[in-house]
User: Fold Octanoyltransferase from Solirubrobacter deserti.
Amino acid sequence: VAKRAGKSSYRLFEPAMHAGVLARLELRTGLARAIDADELELHYQPVVRLSDGSTAGFEALMRWQHPERGLVSPADFIPIAEETGMIVPMGRWALHEAAAHLRALDGDYRMNVNLSAKQLQDPGLVEDVRAAIAGLDPSRFVLELTESMVMDDADHAVDQLTALKALGIKLALDDFGTGHSSLGYLSRLPVDILKLDRAFLAGDEPNLIAAVVSLGHALSLEVVAEGIEEDEQWHALRALGCQYGQGFLFSKPLTAADSLAAVAWSLCSERMPSELLVCHLG
Ligand code: C2E
Ligand code: MG
Ligand code: MG
Ligand code: MG
Assistant:
């Protein structure tokens, strides 16, 4: 590119780009110490039953509490962590952290954890997962993967996924309908759950959504719609028979403490007569 740009190759050193490169470098070195410095956190977004909005489980979403920059979003640091390979220890940390949180939650919830391509290629993954979920009912633990993660080496990926399934955990195909979706992969992968990318909802194409929900059901998959922000979307999806959803309409990702409080509160309101609740609220 620089060659073709000829004399205008000075563009490469425009201040804005320079700042961008510096910022990435800085994030890169920062990430290397983030785990040990205790700067990573998981936030937990409820996955709800669309029938009544009750919480069926949570998706663990990584956050980086940077000492100077504050909360950094995964869109900014996950790609860097993947480039450097740091995602493998970070992902291992997330597996253990999310499983510990699942043990701390009072109730029969599920916990979803996102996996990266590098982790799927890591020969230690199955042992990491086995260690993380020790003592838990494995069917309450869900790993989320995307089709693009599988495409580089589909045979190896399918072997890894089969070994993970043998632990008794569930697998979800995340962001379905974006990028390189292919029905061929969908039938080859031993997944249990299909997560419809939120672009489907944003695209406002009811026929397409209906088709994908019935595709999932035809393959005996549970279907989760991502990115529900409006009542109308909830009601339309429920009418289509989509069982689960996730989105800001129900809840943003919560800190660990807030997710515990939300669960305690819902247990409390189920068990107590409403007059008592009023009392407790003062
Ligand atoms: P994802 O796995 O598809 O996660 C869903 C993303 O959508 C989350 O963004 C969530 O906050 C956001 N979201 C949920 N409901 C709504 C909504 O109603 N509207 C909108 N606009 N957004 C909504 P987040 O937390 O920024 O994570 C972005 C992506 O980063 C994730 O997409 C996932 O691919 C990746 N990621 C997050 N945590 C981890 C992790 O622990 N490991 C790996 N490998 N990737 C992670
Ligand atoms: Mg996900
Ligand atoms: Mg997703
Ligand atoms: Mg995603």
In short: The pocket of magnesium ion (ligand 3) is lined by residues 174-175, 195, 226 (CB under 6 Å). The chain has 14 helices and nine strands. The chain has a mean pLDDT of 89. The longest strand covers residues 55-66.
